[in-house]
Amino acid sequence: MFDVVYLCFGAAAWAIVAYKARAWFRDRQNADLGLTCVMTAGVANVFLLSAPSVYRWFDRLVGVANLAMVLLYSSVVVFATGALVLMLRWTGSAVRPRTVVTAVGAAWSVAVIGFAVGRPDAVEHPRDFSTAYADAPGVVTFLVLYLAIFGSGLAGLGVLCRRYASTLRGSWLARGLRVLAAGCWLGLAYCACKVIGFLFSWAGRDLPWLSNGVAPLTASVAALLVLAGFAIPALGPRVSAWRRLRRLNPLWREVTAQAPEVAMPMGRHGWTGWWPFADLEWRANRQMAEIRDVQRGVRRHVEAEALEIARVKGRTAGLGDWQLVAFMEAAALRRGLLNQAAGRLPVPGADSVVVETGAGPGQEHEHLARVADVYHQPLVDEVLEELGGRTAAQRQ
Fold first, then answer.
1. How far is residue 84 CA from its own chain's centroid?
2. pLDDT value at residue 267
3. Do residues 188 and 154 make contact, with C-beta atoms less than 8 angstroms apart?
4. Residue 110's pLDDT is what?
5. Using 50, 70 and 90 to split pLDDT, how confident is the model at 321?
6. pTM for the predicted model, two decimal places
7. H-run or E-run covering 111
8. How far apart are the first and last CA of the chain?
9. Of 5, 107, 124, 108, which is closest to residue 62 (Cα–Cα)?
10. Residues 6+ apart with CB under 8 A from 192
11. Residue 264: what pLDDT?
């Protein structure tokens, strides 16, 4: 069971590493992105080596019992060191990152020496390493230094992530930083469980359920939160773009079918259609721009009173402000396309069929998605029927 769980988490983590590394290779001047790639790789390696079968396989390969634990904890130290370096970079501290890396490297060298000289037997302990060697001074030195480095990195990164998230106000980066901060706090709880387990072991009262049960579970959840925190800023906008694209697509297909001249070539960004999640942001932006082009092109085919009729009917139906604006635009767009297809040019025509919302770019996308949602609603049909009736009366 542990093998399956940790290997699945490890595979997902390495996929995130590959995704971030690809972005870093495109922007190698971004030192912070490169550092997060290294930190994410450290977490991914922890999951991989936490699988008992991989742990034992590695030890058999090198011929040293429990050496996998050194590699596993070294991966954690890489993550913690990266966290400390990020803290220095983000705060503009006078302490040079190289100084911190050197200090952590020296401390970890002492820890590894402690492991080498203090390991009393050759029995594998992938699940109970800390309790099995709680009375071995060298291994205890190894574990205490590991917890000190790890805890320091988590504390610093957790404080910084929370602080910066509060300044970003609802962005995907802010969400990612908050999740990352939660992972850091939970990681500190893991450190606390280990320290408490040591203290009770030294007092002659072992707590294996805490050191070997609660602590690893807490660390695993913390690692998942850390990975999620790193992934959310990159994946969140793409998920939003995919949802927006899915909502806009029916409307885009319908309006561009009647105005094919506004459609740009699909190959501009290399999208050929074989991979549905390629260039999501560009495709969503392109569809929004083309729908707007159609709206501007049909405004002279829309009666001047069309928006007002839609406003009255929307208010009567109890639509909220955002729903009302989307409903008015949907009704005007449908009317304009119908009149354009019939060759009708009402006099006077509408000055515009786009209702000003005062929204930012992201909210503008959401607004147009709402237009797509209500485009074929029965209430829009009622507006078109009334407009059609007025047009027929005027002709008589």
1. 22
2. 44
3. yes
4. 95
5. confident
6. 0.78
7. helix 97-118
8. 80
9. 124
10. none
11. 63
